[in-house]
Automatic annotation (TrEMBL):
It comes from Fonticula alba (Slime mold). GO terms for molecular function: ATP binding; D-glucose binding; fructokinase activity; glucokinase activity. Pfam families: Hexokinase_1, Hexokinase_2. Pathway: Carbohydrate metabolism; hexose metabolism; Carbohydrate degradation; glycolysis; D-glyceraldehyde 3-phosphate and glycerone phosphate from D-glucose: step 1/4. It catalyses: a D-hexose + ATP = a D-hexose 6-phosphate + ADP + H(+); D-fructose + ATP = D-fructose 6-phosphate + ADP + H(+). This is hexokinase. Residues 36-240 form the Hexokinase N-terminal domain. GO terms for biological process: glucose metabolic process; glycolytic process; intracellular glucose homeostasis.
Length: 662
């Protein structure tokens, strides 16, 4: 039997399923709520892109020349650090050699033996080590001692990587995926920890020197010669594997446990490099370009006045019913916009996640898009739906039926958040995967048998119920019948959270694309007019002065061109997808993202902007790349959107580090 492809929006999907009327209504109400909370219209997205571009340009001058009245300054949590990597040229694929590389900053620590074979090819042998808790929150010796011991373990398993006797220590390439200030390739001072790390005694220190001391102490015959960020490594290894002829090599991006991007910038625009004439590597100041590590995770972070912070925290806690019995009027998210418009569309779930995180108030962009956080965001949303029903409706149905009466109402928000943090992004991807297969089965697609979905459904329901504090009677016998609605809500929530992440990541990529100058100024004018076409409820629009300060390739823009145009109604409405659905929903490409934006357009290599992207979120989340392409098409239209080529750069950071040390 042939079955039509899944529709693009959940509302069409739900309407097309043979569900009980009550369930169908409940799912439609839930969908409308999720779209209103996590939806990002093309206009919202355009506002994010412009703010990102403005912040990116503010990160280029020497810090001393920044004035508070011009916007964020380096001590602001939202400041984009734009860190010089001291990598001034990219490989062309011909490089050869051997190297040992380390990768610290993802979920595991890895030691990677790399053999560069030329012709863009590399062979690697790697070992993974689980990073113990004490290394993440202990002291520098704990962390670097663990790293040195792991390398010693690797060398036992792979003695061919031991240097020849009498040769002295061999060079070691270190991918250290945290923000660092570098004066050269071989030393890097940590500016601050991110993700789940808070090891004492490392901030402000040279991580190369700390590692060398630990290596010496354990007699490990290696010394650090190159330290790079994973995004920089990804760009380098991507350049190595694709070679120079496929298009313009623009950027390396990580969408994994953390999220960030690095790109090639012209040194003449990087004011903070100009006063560094005394750098040991004077080649840097003579070079045309340098890879900059944006540290984009900080984007949108902002200090809040204490009253506003309290208000947001209170709202967030009420949403989870920790502070108020479920019978009191609902704290309805859409009806309570923030009193301070933000650079990012933070929901109360984002605020709550932030409050419970290792670095509150920081890395707010990263907390919307990285794998470390996506599972928790979805779980907080589900907890709200389970505790209070669908906001804005008085629908009698609740998730897990009467069982939600038992939800804990303890004051211990932090304990719940800690538990929620264990719901990994990988689980979320499983939810969405199951959802898509379930939808296919419900639509009568005989390629998917309901029976085969049962074990995954049972596992996810049991995990979810345990985390929400709902006592399921036992492991459900017939999960697809008894908890169909729960499974669909689970999948929808996962989709909305990850689709928003994909769109926000694409906004960062769009800003980098604009900054290269390769697109010219028209696409920027289009984004400005999209941003001005609608006043967003949540986001702070750019002021005319801020818009006027934007540059393309270092050149100011003609204000007439920027501000004189207004998009036509049809331009704004023209998004992919069908008629009659809420715009947020259409733009999301929720169920089936369809072909990427550039599939229909043949783009000559000279016009292509190549982005090498690595990380579990990009690689494993269903539809993530497709949704990013969709966002780029929403922003720029299919012709310019199609110039962005988002490619998976496999194992970028370790091969990139080896190339940097080569
Ligand atoms: C770090 C970046 C890193 C990214 C991806 C972020 O938390 O600050 O330096 O590139 O994670 O690993």
């Amino acid at each position: 039997m042939s079955v039509a492809p899944l529709p693009e929006s959940f509302s069409s999907l739900i309407r097309g399923l043979a569900l009980r009327a009550e369930d169908s209504e409940f799912l439609l109400a839930t969908n409308a709520y999720l779209a209103s909370v996590f939806g990002l219209s093309a206009s919202d997205l355009a506002t994010v892109v412009l703010r990102f571009l403005a912040d990116l340009q503010r990160g280029l001058p020497a810090p001393g020349t920044l004035r508070p009245e011009d916007g964020v300054t380096p001590d602001h949590p939202g400041f984009l650090k734009m860190l010089p990597s001291h990598v001034t040229r990219l490989p062309d694929g011909s490089e050869r050699g051997h190297c040992l590389a380390l990768d610290l900053g993802g979920t595991n620590f890895r030691v990677v033996g790399t053999h560069l074979l030329g012709e863009g090819r590399a062979e690697t042998v790697s070992e993974r080590y689980t990073i113990p808790g004490y290394a993440k929150d202990g002291n520098a010796q704990d962390l670097f001692g663990f790293i040195a011991a792991s390398i010693a373990g690797f060398l036992k398993l792979h003695p061919e990587y031991l240097p020849e006797p009498g040769q002295g220590p061999a060079p070691l390439a270190f991918t250290f995926s945290f923000p660092t200030q570098q004066d050269g390739l071989s030393s890097a001072r940590l500016t601050n920890w991110t993700k789940g790390f808070s090891t004492q005694g490392v901030i402000g220190e040279d991580v190369g020197a700390l590692l060398n001391t630990a290596l010496e102490a354990l007699d490990v015959p290696y010394r650090v010669t190159a330290i790079i960020n994973d995004t920089v490594g990804t760009l380098i290894s991507f350049a190595y594997s694709v070679g120079p002829d496929q298009g313009n090599l623009v950027s390396g991006v990580i969408l994994g446990t953390g999220a960030n991007a690095a790109y090639m910038e012209r040194v003449e625009l990087v004011g903070k490099l100009h006063d560094k004439v005394d750098l040991p590597t004077t080649a840097v100041t003579r070079a045309d370009s340098m890879v900059l590590n944006i540290e984009w995770g900080t984007f949108g972070s902002m200090p809040l006045a204490p009253e506003e912070a309290n208000r947001r925290a209170g709202l967030a806690e009420r949403l989870l019913s920790f502070r108020q019995p479920a019978t009191e009027p609902d704290a309805d998210v859409p009806d309570e916009p923030p009193s301070t418009p933000m650079a990012l569309p933070f929901t109360p779930y984002d605020d709550l996640l932030d409050m419970g995180s290792v670095h509150p108030g920081r890395q707010r962009f990263e907390k919307c898009i990285a794998g470390l956080y996506l599972g928790e965001l979805a779980l907080l949303t589900l907890r709200h739906l389970a505790a209070r029903g669908v906001p804005g409706t008085s629908h009698p149905r609740v998730l897990f039926g009467q069982l939600t009466r038992d939800l804990p109402t303890s004051d211990d928000v932090q304990a719940f958040l800690d538990a929620a943090g264990r719901w990994s992004g990988e689980t979320l991807a499983r939810c969405e995967e199951l959802f898509l297969r379930l939808a296919m089965a419900l639509r009568g697609d005989d390629k998917v048998s309901r029976k085969t979905l049962e074990p995954a459904a049972r596992d996810l329901l049991t995990e979810l119920a345990a985390l929400l504090g709902v006592r399921l009677p036992s492991s459900p016998e017939n999960p697809l019948d008894d908890y169909l609605v729960e499974l669909l809500v689970l999948g929808m929530t996962a989709s909305y959270v990850s689709a928003r992440a994909a769109r926000l990541a694409a906004a960062g990529i769009a800003a980098i694309g604009l900054q290269t100058g390769l697109l010219g100024s028209e696409p920027l004018a289009r984004v400005v007019s999209l941003a001005r076409s609608e006043t967003s409820r949540l986001l702070a629009p750019l002021t005319v002065a801020e818009l006027g300060a934007l540059k393309v390739a270092g050149q100011p823009l003609d204000p007439e061109m920027l501000l004189g145009t207004s998009p036509t109604e049809t331009e704004i409405a023209a998004g992919p997808g069908g008629q009659g659905q809420p715009p947020e929903e259409v733009a999301f490409g929720l169920c089936d993202a369809g072909p990427p934006g550039d599939a229909a357009v043949e783009v000559p290599a000279a016009e292509r902007l190549l982005f090498g992207i690595d990380g579990s979120v990009f690689e494993f989340y269903p539809h993530f790349p497709g949704r990013m392409h969709r966002a780029l098409t929403d922003l720029f239209g299919p012709r310019v959107g199609g110039r962005f080529s988002l490619q998976h750069a496999k194992d970028g950071s370790s091969v990139g580090a080896a190339l940097a040390a080569n």
